[in-house]
Amino acid sequence: xxxxxxxxxxxxxxxxxxxxxxxxxxxxxxxxxxxxxxxxxxxxxxxxxxxxxxxxxxxxxxxxxxxxxxxxxxxxxxxxxxxxxxxxxxxxxxxxxxxxxxxxxxxxxxxxxxxxxxxxxxxxxxxxxxxxxxxxxxxxxxxxxxxxxxxxxxxxxxxxxxxxxxxxxxxxxxxxxxxxxxxxxxxxxxxxxxxxxxxxxxxxxxxxxxxxxxxxxxxxxxxxxxxxxxxxxxxxxxxxxxxxxxxxxxxxxxx
Length: 255
What we know:
Layout: H1 3-21, E1 25-29, H2 49-52, H3 55-58, H4 61-66, H5 68-83, H6 89-99, E2 106-108, H7 114-118, E3 123-125, E4 128-134, E5 141-143, H8 144-153, E6 168-171, H9 180-192, E7 195-199, H10 211-217, E8 221-225, E9 238-240, H11 244-254
Parallel strand pairs: 1-2, 1-7, 2-3, 7-8, 8-9
Antiparallel strand pairs: 4-5, 4-6
């Protein structure tokens, strides 16, 4: 075993030890947990989604209101790119931790539904989900399959059949507040947690990025499983910075 392999193995064993000693552990995930499923993250130089397009022009609530056709020109492609994606071993490892009773739930910034598909039961989707779209006028809800049918049938901007109003994805856009109930549940989990395992997140997007601080302020610990620097590197008990699927597989194996 090389020195780097030994360090990695020791790190995974440390995360496993923290999980075994915790009574109220929670997992917080960001876009990096879905990268092994073939979904690019948002900010990695050269490959991140926002490297290729300005989010203020295609993913802001004002963009949706002022130019829904341009907005849906981006989002219809994003929906189509996500619909066939499947959970990867990182999602499956997190679901296994919940199944074993080692974590109380998953707080995720992702909208791709993959935690649920992997078998996680308590999933707090603080940025919403691509599962459905809503009509801003009447509140009608349309499941993803129906929205994709609308897009395929044309026009490219799906509309509410009753209101003839462009539908809005049930996800949090830039310029919108996060769902109050989801954030309240996430904050409660964070404040009660004696361990928060942060996976695949740069922990830069607020208010979700404040949750590890909530856990720390309440006397809990944090562990990081993510590539790249985060504002919490100096506060973490341990940081694993390899491939998230490999790292979490090693953690489960060490239990």
